[in-house]
Structure formats: C-alpha cells, structure tokens
Amino acid sequence: MEMDEEKIKEQIMKDDIKFISLQFSDIMGAVKSVTIPVEELDMALKDGIWFDGSSVEGFMRIHESDMYLKLDLSTYAVIPWLSSEIGKTARFICDVYTPEGEPFKGDPRNILKKVLKEAEEMGYMFNVGPEPEFYLFKRENGFSHLTNDIGGYFDLSMDKAFIIRTEMMTALRNLGMEAEMAHHEVGAGQHEIDIRYNEGLKTADNVLSFKLTLKAIADKHNLLATFIPKPFYGKPGNGMHCHQSLFDIKKGKNAFYDSTKDYNMSDIALNFIAGQIKYIKELAAITNPTVNSYKRLGAFEAPVYICWARTNRSALIRVPGFTRGKGSAARAELRNPDCTCNPYLALAVMLKAGLQGIKDKLVPPAAVNEDVFHFDDAKLAEFYIDSLPKGLDKALKLLEKSKLAKEVLGEHLFTRYLDIKKAEWNEYRLQVHKWELDNYLERY
Questions:
Q1: Suppose 304 and one of 87, 297, 364, 385 were both cysteines; which one would form an S-S bond, judging by CB atoms 3.0 to 4.6 Å apart?
Q2: Residue 55: DSSP 8-state
Q3: Tens digit of pLDDT for each residue in 193-210?
Q4: Is 192 an active-site residue?
Q5: How far from the centroid of its chain's Cα atoms is residue 416's Cα?
Q6: How far apart are CA 231 and CA 50, in angstroms?
Q7: 26, 131, 205, 301: which is the annotated catalytic residue?
Q8: Is 412 a catalytic residue?
Q9: Domain 5-104 adopts which CATH fold?
Q10: Active site includes 333?
Q11: Helix, strand, coil proportions of the chain in percent (round to 5)?
C-alpha cells in the first residue's frame, strides 16, 4: 500500500485505529514492538520513536545505545486479532536508525535492502515465494507434545485444523499477505500455508508477520503453532522452501525463463543456481541457524546433499514444473531454509550467492534426477556431490570463514551473529540430554 502521511492518517481514521504497534526485527529474527496511542502518530512520523538499542539482542553496547524507529508507511495494516472494545490496533514495520540519521548497520532489514539494491543495479528485482511449514500442538496443563490431529498429507477426514487454517488465511490476507494455498502436511498435526511470491523485502516482512499471526490465531484455539524444524525424532520436519526468480527490469520479464534451454531455464538462472550451490555450505548457519535445524536435514525430503534437479525432491535446489506458456513462473526452489532463520538475513545471503554466480558466470554441475538419499559414498563422489554441514558447530566454522557472508552482513552484524550463535552451541553442548540418560545411565 503506497501512501503518503496524509493518506495514512485518513486511512487510520477510517479504520478507527486507537493504537499503533511499531515492529522491527532483532538479529535472530524475533519481532520487537513498541505500542503508541494514535495521538502520538504525528510525533512518530516526524521524529521517529527512540529506544534503547543495548537491550535488543545483538544491537549495540550500553554506551552507544540510542536509536530510533522510522516507520515504513507501505507496511500499514490493521492487526486482526487485536481488535476489541478498547479499540483497533494497526502496525507499521520499521527501519532502525542511528542518532546521526543513518540506517543502522546492524538492522537486518537494512542488510536485505542493500543486497536488493545491488540486484537492482544489475537490472534485477528479486522475487520469492516461501512455503512455511508448522505443527499445531494441544495446550493441556501447559505445553504438550500432543499434536492436534493424526491426519496426513492433504488429508481432510482426520484434519482437525481446517477451520483454523481458514481463519489463519483470512488474518494473513487482512495483513496484506496473499495466502495462496493451505493444506495438511505429511506429519500428524503438521500444516502448510503458502504465501504468494513477492519482491524480496515484502516477502521478508511477510514471513516475520506470518509467524506472529499463526501463533496468535492458534493461541485463540488453545493450540501452540510451532515452526521448530524437527519437533519429533523419526517424523517429518518443518522447512521453508523458497521459490526464487529474478525479474529483468529493463526487459519487463522473468530473467529465469528461456524456452530454448533445457528445463526452460535461462543462462542467468543457471548462473544463479550455481552461485547458491557454491556458497550454500558457508551460509547454512544463517538459513538454518539453530541446533534443531540440522536434525531436520537429510530425512523426509529435507535436503542435505548439494545438487540440483528438475523434479527430484531430495535435491537442494529443484526446478519446479509450470504451465506451458507461463514463463513468468520459471523459478528455482531452494529447499534447505527453515523458519527459525531471520528472513531478512536469509534472503540477503541467498540473493547475494545467486548474484555472485551471475557476476562470475558460474555454471552448475549436471542436474541429478535420481534420489540422492540412496547414493552411497562412491556414487556421491562420482557425481561430485557435497553435503550441508551436519551440525550448527560445523556450520558456524564455515560461516566464520565466509568472505561473502561478511560482505553481506557487515562487520558489526557478522561479529555479533557469530558470538550469539557460538554461545548457543556451547550451551547446548554442555547440556545432558534424555538420550544420554536412556542409553548410558544403567549401562555404565
């Protein structure tokens, strides 16, 4: 919604808004917010809203903590679940600025904007369509690992969340997101709602709001919506497959489509894919940032082997089919990301890797259209197929050496991110887990 300040004020009056939620993201992707009464909107638009950056994960130190929020007027939306007799609440997503009036270098939204600007200077707009998966758990006497149903893929007869998903889709649309499709996923109590593709910044904003919305709607039904990548051993995990394409600004068409090429994928598309294949290992700690992320990869079609293919769902990057004559739908689906990532940072490094592939005119290896999960070590070596890191610790070591990641994130955010994630890994490493007690307690 493109609006100037006067039109925004008119819309706020029309919507009978009483409160404004100003939202932004910390380094890890958690939504932060401050709420102001609508009477303070003029002040917020003029001067921003100041806050203590040292209290936000990974932002600044105490002696340099002053920052302010600048409202992005295009992100105005009424929050559906916060309407009450007290009044309605609207939200703006904000950018973080320093006291000098400069965009804060550690603001994840600003990081993505910089890479999107690089793509624009190369003549492209980055479009992404995410497919977030989630589980619904019952809340009984506190948190429970009991799923809300025992349904399976596209199930209806045993799907107890049909009405809840439609309520979620309605809320998403009210927030300006086009929810294309919703269905039961493979796991009991597992679901998926696909967000229609959009340009990169809008998509990252949408993912941030998507998770917040689903959790709020689930809570109304005494359920917990969780995006944890692997909630159960031996059961399907939650991913966030990302369908990506570049739009050629000058030519006004999808830069990934070429009807004369194999799979109808242009040289630009293949360069982009090759760039992601080259750099994905060192970027995994951003696209898959938690200890739990690596328990999902390598099972139930969640990729671990670095290759690409036309229809092969065990591949890291898949080229989905599309209706004949609709070249605008040509795209590459990156299948390893999950919803624990910060969407701004994940999309930034994904795009940068692809752009670097275009700049360097990289060529991907031959497509692998067999089920890679069944390859032994010899066959993996024959096809020169590498694999993603097998744990957060290994992913962090690769990230620390990544020149590309450091260039994207900048010195400040790169250092803070590594510090936070290393501390997280070390805390996990020192824990005693139930598996250890089950297997070792009586044996030794």
A1: 297
A2: G
A3: 999 999 999 999 999 999
A4: yes
A5: 20
A6: 38
A7: 131
A8: no
A9: Ubiquitin-like (UB roll) (3.10.20)
A10: yes
A11: 40, 25, 35
